[in-house]
Design brief:
Elements lengths: L1 H7 L7 E4 L2 H7 L1 H4 L5 H17 L5 E5 L2 H9 L8 E3 L25 E5 L8 H13 L5 E5 L12 H10 L3 E4 L6 H6 L3 E4 L9 H8 L4 E4 L14 E4 L6 H7 L4
Parallel strand pairs: 1-2, 2-3, 4-5, 4-7, 5-6, 7-8, 8-9
Helix pairs in contact: 6-10
Length: 256
Amino acid sequence: MSLQSRIGAKIPRRSFVFSAGSTTCSALWLGFLFSEETGSVRALRWGIMRFLTYALHHPNQITTFQNPDDARIFVSRGVVPKERTAVTPGSGVDPGRFEYAGGTAVEKGQAPIVMLSTRLLWHKGVGVFVDAARRLRENGVDAQFALVGDTDPENPGAVPRAQIEAWDDEGPIKWWGRQPPSEMPSVLGQAHVVCLPSHCREGVPKVLIEAASCGRPIVTTDVPGRREIVNHEDTGFLVPPRGGELHCAAGGGDDR
């Protein structure tokens, strides 16, 4: 996509817009590249940023980002000039499909459902989610933790399917598997809280926009791409990445 945009920008009197948001993160693993600091990842990150500097530096291009933090990184590293950037906060959703799903009050005798819907990758916070479920259960909190999504074995940060099945058998979480996009409004409507304890950089996660459109409270990390969608302690909670406060925000702390 970058090379196509780069070549196209050479056509006279034509302007091209390149999105460096979720499309780039997905295609080039930018979320993974900016969440790990091993030597091999740093080298790969350097090479990709050099490539993007060439691909995005034409005067006929405008590069769009889904959050201002990512735009600042690309500008500060000289990848793209500031005057040729724009921020569009997320890809949006159809509010006609993701309608308000009603209140989230828990009926007597019913366990609230705390849901994580994502690709099953370590840097998406799957392990943090499972740990929070364990701690809440040990503290006597009656809640269901639903993990929605499928494995991604080709991704270097993938959680093995065997591990997910073991968690499901053990009981801290229930794995609902991959749900088709057509079913996501009703799936999110079953949740009392939607979580995304990811610590990687990305655009604005679509599942959080969908959850907000359905009127679901959100617990997510205070990192770029997530903090833009949550008003802390109003529409949800922002917790430190990789921290141990997710269980408190989800209902396990006395001050929550």
